[in-house]
## 1
Amino acid sequence: MLRILYFSQSSRDITDAQVRDILESSRRNNPSLGITGVLIHGGGMFMQVLEGPERSTLRQYVKILDDKRHGDCQIIHISPTQERIFQKFSMGVIQSDPFQFQHIAALREQRFESVQAKMFTDTMREFLAKLSAGPQHDAG
Ligand SMILES: Cc1cc2nc3c(=O)[nH]c(=O)nc-3n(C[C@H](O)[C@H](O)[C@H](O)COP(=O)(O)O)c2cc1C
């Protein structure tokens, strides 16, 4: 399995109804994809953890990247994992500015420079294309 943590800026005119729509989509789609996680929203930011099988988690992240309700996605952490942290949540939600949490600022400071983050994203797209072209099985 894979775990991804990213930050993004929510669109300036995002409404509560749009955030509810995101959660509805998540709860509708994530169970069959084997994805669990948490979405934190507040202070003009989103922070999300996605965890699940590599193929479906990367695919879902790339889909989320193109969503117009946010932008400037920055991956803070990505790693293979054996265990889920949010196993009980197809997508848990926390209404809060992510920076209210301890260590978030430090975590964010430790992320790669933006060029490297873009490289990282492009690499993910490449992985996805390769996974999509390969045999239909999930690692995890
Ligand atoms: C910050 C953010 C997080 C999202 N997280 C998820 C998610 O975990 N699962 C999901 O299916 N869609 C998520 N979405 C929505 C997707 O971008 C997309 O709109 C949705 O998957 C479309 O689903 P549908 O075709 O079933 O309507 C998220 C969108 C945003 C802006």
## 2
Amino acid sequence: MALSFYVHIPYCIKRCGYCDFNTYTPNELQDGATLEIVSSDYIDAVLSELEAAPTDQVPTIFFGGGTPSLLPADDLGRVIVAIKLRNGISPDCEITLEANPDSVTAQKLAQYVEVGFNRISFGMQSAKPHVLAVLDRTHNPENVEKAVTMARAAGFTSISVDLIYGTPGESLDDWRETVSTALALDIDHMSAYALIVETGTKLAAQIKRGDLVMPDDDLMADMYLLVDQLCMRAGLDWYELSNWSKLGHECRHNIAYWENKNWWGLGPGAHSHVDGKRFWNVKHPTAYKQKLFAGQSPVADSEVLTAGQIGLEAILLGIRMRGGLDIELLEPYQIELLATFRGDGFVELSDNRALLTPTGRLIADRIVREITI
Ligand SMILES: C[S@@+](CC[C@H](N)C(=O)[O-])C[C@H]1O[C@@H](n2cnc3c(N)ncnc32)[C@H](O)[C@@H]1O
Ligand code: SF4
């Protein structure tokens, strides 16, 4: 079987107000180290963890974070070389870098391509300065166009941007401008996620105090339908609820997750899935490094998926994909429940597969809940 790799880079210059990802700013690091010092040492720990992984050939590698583009290409390249030497990579291996538009230069991008990256995903979020301000983002929206142009010139063959919709104070027209601005760039792929208010974040505190108000569900639905229409018109088709791409530019790494393939997550807090077993690492980079440098496993805990869990996940993940859900996975009573959604125009049946219509995609979670209780 193939084995995909996720490589977690748990560092950011500054934490965005809405984000609860497992990432640390230089100030938050207990060892007080700067990113330059941290980088090489951190990669040593990652390479040591790699020794425990299976040796199957690798179809995709994804460097996520955090902000992987903060680290020099040479450091990230050490991981790519080690995986190549140890496992071998497929000839068309997709190697993605998550990047902040502010943290790249033409020279740095060329170096990333040189060490093997071929796909890049920029955290654009919004084209509107007032929305970026509420999101507490550091980047200047004009840097996104520069970054995409430089990435293309450097030789990246697949370019994606991440957007967020439903930020307090964002109107439908603001969102239209953001999506149109993104689509006017030379991109192959777009992810658009509804803003989630994560407990413990600065955003959650602002909402609790009443300083910010989240948009209502109708506006969120209109925003989703708008991004879908604009993407389709620009030749980017949806292939998963929150993802659109030109044909052939679907993110194969994420598809491997959604199809429950085998993947290994390197780094603190990273999760892995190998043959029905899930396990995850200790969360803090310092604890992670200490374990590995002491010759110990960084795994914090694990679980073996039951047949019931595997079946439920197949429904949950399958229905989110353009290819739809194989009806064979369902019990007769579940097919009957699905038929009621079909009558309401939320689901279509084709070749023994249940496919969500655009309005069905708005209520995907409800459909799954109702057919799985
Ligand atoms: C690890 S970040 C991408 C790389 C880089 N750190 C950045 O933000 O530019 C992955 C993506 O997760 C999304 N994200 C993070 N927190 C979110 C939240 N609370 N709600 C919705 N999307 C979120 C953002 O769109 C972000 O671009
Ligand atoms: S959204 Fe990205 S840049 Fe902002 S704190 Fe989270 S991981 Fe870092």
## 3
Amino acid sequence: MTLQGSERDDFDLQMMALALRAARLGLGTTAPNPSVGAVIANEATGEVISTGTTAPGGRPHAEPLAIEAAGEAARGKTIYVTLEPCSHVGRTRPCVEAVLKAGLSRVVIAQEDPDPRVSGRGVRMLREAGVIVRKSVLHDEARWLTRGHIVRVTERRPFIQLKLALSNEDTVPLAVDGKPNFATSETSRAHGHMLRARADAILIGAGTLRDDDPDLRCRLPGLEGRSPVRVVLAGSSLPDPARKLVRTATETPVWIMTTASTIIQDQARADALTKAGCRLMVIGGVGGEPWLPSLCEALVAEGITRLLVEGGPTLWRSFAKSGLVDEVVVFRAGRAAMLQETAGTVDDINQEIPEALRSLLPGLTLQMWDRRVSGPDEMITLRHDKPA
Ligand SMILES: NC(=O)c1ccc[n+]([C@@H]2O[C@H](COP(=O)([O-])OP(=O)(O)OC[C@H]3O[C@@H](n4cnc5c(N)ncnc54)[C@H](OP(=O)(O)O)[C@@H]3O)[C@@H](O)[C@H]2O)c1
């Protein structure tokens, strides 16, 4: 039996959703490569034969992993991939070659790869070899999931996600006596740590480093190894070497990004930070302040594709004013009950965007994407969607 028409379309959607789930598993582990998901399935029986996710470090790619797991069973079957298979010889053989060698007869892809080395070539090579190719299945979801890779290639910047924690009154809880003020719950903080696990780098400004002395690593049980590179943006002076981040720089990398003049101003401190294991990186500045496009360029040059900006408010505003924001995740303390009252069920998406975000994120036109309870708090995800 071979599926036809709408039955086949439904099956393609289900399998691509599975491939997207596989891709999501690798977010934050595959830089500089995108995390891709692949599924090999038998349309005749509805059986899923194997799955693959880009391996940590970006290689092997998802397709050869799924093909290897399927073995001979791949012959004559369909592979679902969240990104067009690569066609160029890099450090590994091209995925198109692996697909042809495995004898797969149909390839369903969610999106073409904007990388000029691939862009449409992978699809063309498959078709020329007689393989049936279907494009653009769950395209928009795949595009968002792969956005770090897309904007790295098209805009020379990483995917930028801002994380904000607000009090019950929608104000920003500030540090008290040199200690962070955790207004939100353990559950929300665990969600926040999951965002860290899915990021390649996490960024704070000199203010948060000074006031909170944070650690910024992922502390979710089992995901401790998924901590992103910790980046501090320093303007007027270099960070104090006694900060927790600096003391743990040999365990999890710390990059201090600042202007050349700030380093020259305090060479002794620069040397102390370098000796402690921090990496000092010079970026361009405007009016004495580090310039965000220059920060983005430096991050991309280091292979960073997904950046989580944890704060504080000065940095949020800077990113908003520059328009350098893709997604905003907001935790609102103690708001879960209100959400249930106004929205009826937690699945109802309430479109109203908190007024406080207008002043915290000036100039951004945000769309509500998701709204849900997070323990006693509310967690909302907003997207600043520009064509990419
Ligand atoms: N509720 C939350 O989600 C949350 C999250 C994080 C922090 N906080 C709180 O926020 C407070 C710190 O606020 P903050 O606004 O001072 O922290 P911040 O945004 O982390 O740091 C701002 C500082 O970063 C430096 N910087 C360098 N280049 C910059 C640029 N292009 N744009 C903006 N800043 C740049 C500047 O300091 P220099 O010129 O001195 O280098 C600037 O004053 C603390 O009380 C902390 O507890 C709250």
## 4
Amino acid sequence: MTVPDTEVERRVRVLSQALRGAGLRLTHQRLEVAREIARSEAHPDTETVYRNVRLRVPTISVDTVYRTIATLEGLGLITRVDATPGAARYDANLEHHHHFVCTRCGLIRDVYHPSLDKVEAPDVADQLGKVESIRVQLRGLCKSCEGKENEDERRE
Ligand SMILES: [Zn+2]
Ligand SMILES: [Zn+2]
């Protein structure tokens, strides 16, 4: 599963324009951080972005990765995935969508479905505040973890 090239290029253009707009010089390093996030469907954490970018840019520091991600998040161009265990995970897909989260290995995948888009806020929500959007998080075991669980059961 990969993000189509044209979409990656579009996202990289948006992200790099924003970095420049925020007054940051568009260095090769920052551009590679933006590209890594833009092309990933894995909702990577900072450490993963750092590891992957380092393969192409061995001189990059983890600090540069942190700051570039923080800037992009501050500008609202990438979002942090809500309520995931462990380190913060980032999403460059700004279209309205939902997530499947594996509670064992932390896999996160985008989910699009009209039935999830139709979920309505219940009346009790009004007492808490104004609901502006609803994102559904489907939690469970991914195929791979489920497979492992079945193997374990057979062994017992
Ligand atoms: Zn899993
Ligand atoms: Zn997502």
